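Input (S1C family serine protease):
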Amino acid sequence: MNASRRQFLAAAGVGLAGLAGCTAPEGEPSVAGLDNPEDQPFARLYEAVSPSVVRLRVYDAGGVRGEGSGWLYDDDVLVTNDHVVDLADTVRAQFANGEWVTAELLGTDPYSDLAALSVDPPVEAEPLPLLAEQPPVGTRVAAVGAPLGLEGSLTTGVVSGQNRTISSVRNFTISGAVQTDAAVNPGNSGGPLLTLGGDVAGVITQAGGENIGFAVSAALTERVIPELIENGQYEHSYLGVRILPVTPLLAEANDLEAARGVYLAAVPAGSPADGTLRGGAETVIVEGSPQPTGGDVIVALDDTPIATTGQLGTYLALETSPGDTISVTVIRDGEERTLDVTLGTRPDPR
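Output:
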């Protein structure tokens, strides 16, 4: 975001501060700033960012096959969801000035549900910056896009959860997602989830239920999109194990001191972890429920504590690359040990 846009958004805070010492003229309503544009931070946000958000229309041989949203990541690059442009023959983008332009697909990544498109934007459209860190729960945010094909729409809410592990529209696991209660509907997919400062906190990917929507994190977007622009694809790290969360019953079955870590249900032959890590081989009954036993329990990667399956996925997604050798700390047969595993590349799902 350039200086003028940041100054524009920052001015909202100055205007709000100025209202504190104001009184209404005699005979006028006493609610200061009710219709004052300086007291409308979302209106100011929308005015600043809307030229950079697009409605996407996707065509195949049979005509229009779907719509979605996108936003300007670089001077001539749009970001959207993989599932929005999957199998598209032609993609057209409509900017806020009403102009339609044809977008060229640069690359897609089904695992993160992200895609990059080349486009010739109008001069008033400026790239939107990615947020450096996940915003705290309670941070005010806005989803801008084209829900149900209604271009130029804005819905508001807050960040209602961090580091969520979700299943994508195509049933791939995405770690580190941002949860929001801003209304998200079909057509919002690929649009930005924005802070009041105009930074992209995530890329809207789906609605999870009433008052629950999810966005691919800015951190994962920052890793994936440059690779899509340069190479057309992104290679994800691959440990090659089947995992389960450590529940209290599973912990009891495996004589663990606490219900934390990630249980290895299986280590398939030929996977990067094969021959180093160990999967479960037996089952016992605990309180009437069958529980796997004998598998390693991952409790740390490179000395970073791992307490949940989400933390495991987030670390692999954001801190590692294929070919890296990482230290994996596990509990095996009641003892803690650290083993080295060289990560592979997640297989192409297609």
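The helical segments are 3-19, 41-49, 82-85, 218-231, 248-253, 309-319.
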